[in-house]
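Protocol step 4 of 6: record predicted structures for both targets in the notebook before any analysis. Target 1:
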Amino acid sequence: MNSLFLMSGDPLNHVVQHGFTVGEGIWTFPILTNHVFMQAVAALLLIWLLPMAVRGRRGMDEVGRLVPARGLNAVETVCITLRSQIFEPNLGKHTDTFTPFLWSLFFFLAAVNILGMIPLADWFSWVPGHWVGGTGTGNIWTTGTLALITLLMVVINGLKYSGAGYIKHFFMGPPYLAWFIAILEILGLGFKAMALCIRLFANMLAGHIILAVMLSFIGQAYAAKGAAAAFGVAIPVVLGSVAFNFLEILVAFLHAFIFTTLTAVFLGQAVNIHHDDHEHDHGHDHDHGHGHATAH
């Protein structure tokens, strides 16, 4: 779906931020960039399309109101599957609390990823500033902000729902090792957030760069050997680019799913500490009771 204009020029030009900035040099600060604009477009599309899909029903009778129509089948299937297969096993009794946030996260990431595959930058090249088009999640600041939100959600809700138990769970093992383990666990929280940030950013960025490099082979062949060579190179390159675009569609949804799933896992680990401790203690009591019964 990417434009054949990618076959010429700098392969990084279509993935970096463009837009109006204030300042110069190290103090340059972007006010409105193409990545910010595309995130706003994705959010507005979701606000418009999802309620429309949810309202779609087969009829107004008793049965028809319960039967989804049009796009709601797909949306409802995704929502129910995420809730039952991913959120509930990790969040338990807190599932309903975090499901709206996690659903919003998934659909937002999927929308931004898919919009980034549409060559809007070429379609709207006449717009001053080149701030239309691009993949918002191919920006480290975007994925870093989302990862920071996840980290804050984990820490704040861990303290809210688990209280002192959330702090105590960092100090594991014998007393002389507890502080060292606590430091490693706290660092682990940061590494988890970094992994979320870098995984999404790197995959979104790399896919577009690879596609641009592949298409640039056509222009290079034309410059070096002429039209016949360019045509010979174009056939495998275009076919490969089409196949790669289908792969990118899969990756766009896959990494939205991975980011959302890991967020649910990290939240579940933070808010279900008391439950885990209770099950652990119950298991020990059961084992002891079973041992006494055997002894008798």
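Target 2:
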Amino acid sequence: MTKMFETQTRTVPITKEMVKAAYRKVRSNQGAAGVDKESLQLFEANLLPNLYVLWNRLSSGSYFPKPLRSVSIPKGNGKQRVLGIPTVSDRIAQEVVKSYLEPRLEAVFDDNSYGYRPLKSAHQALEAVQVYVREYAWVIDMDIKSFFDDVSHELLLKAIDCHVTEKWVKLYIKRWLEAPVQQADGVLVPKAGKGTPQGGVISPLLANLFLHYVLDKWLHKNYAGIAFVRYADDVIVHCHSEEAAKQLLEAIRLRLLSCQLSLNEEKTKLVYCQNYRRVKKTSFGKKFDFLGFTFKPATVKSKKDGKLFLGYGCAISQSAQTKIVEGWRNQNWHRRSALTIQQIAKDVNAPMRGIIRYYGRFKLWALQRLMRHFEFRLAKWVLNKYKKFKYSYSKAYQWIKELKRSYPTMFYYWTVFKHV
């Protein structure tokens, strides 16, 4: 078995270590099974032979991906987002090429691009927007229509040609782009020359490369007086004046059309960042959402003298709060009276920690209302568990309060919010 990975002369310079390193990354990210219904656990049950077969095919040029499994997940607006889920083997193969290409492309990517990049984060993107809204009065809140579905293969491959000379890399990328999507009924849907599936390991890297040329580089070349922040296909553009913002929005609209993309006109808008230094305007919206946060005017207390003034900042958006509360409701643990309070805490603490650390980064106090929603759900569980309370919410909340005193670290949010 150990001889499987002995180095041999290969057509493609993919080594055993590249495949093993890619497997470890895929394993750390977990993920669902593809069209072959092989989960990561099943793949690992025969790990070395599976990795050998994949390495042998990749390094000989005989690797072909399987179709993508179509999965629909709900979006915040009530619509569905369609993901294309590769098989475990295909995810590992994509990770091999992604890891090979990423350092090369990172060297040319713009500093204002934050999505799915090493040492970049959503919080950094949000911090950049916070800085820019103080300097620029106007925002173009852009939404690119069906970006991952409409990416032109022809234009994307031209962008790849600018940085990749290896034929084997371009061959595999082309095969991934052309892999059909298998619907739930088994029907295969061809790509027809466009689209890079959300769910693919290499898709974010390819999307960043495409938008680097479509927007980032184009904006720098033609509009030096503006600023922008991009997180994958979510883009915020900052301008000094209303006229400049209108002109740039029209130019962006034409630029996208020339690259076979378009704006979602219903979601794209101009926003005036009203604060105490700027003339009041009533004909434009004054808030926008970005990465789960709402940027809007808000009363702020001065750190110097304690006086109140109108600032412009961000806090968790209403749509993000609604999605989180619906998630708690759908888990339905408040009806499961057989559960213990310790089991509930064990199940909810890890995701709760993630929610608080992400959405509480800028205004932690803004999450208190959200935590009260959770405590209400906890009170419902108490009433279902202990019939002696006779559906008295005041008694249920008193029971939770006493539990807090005895076990103040049982729930993560108790350690953050002492008085919810």
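Step 5 preliminary note on target 2. The chain has 15 helices and eleven strands. The CA atoms of residues 6 and 103 lie 27 Å apart.
Proceed to step 6 after PI sign-off.
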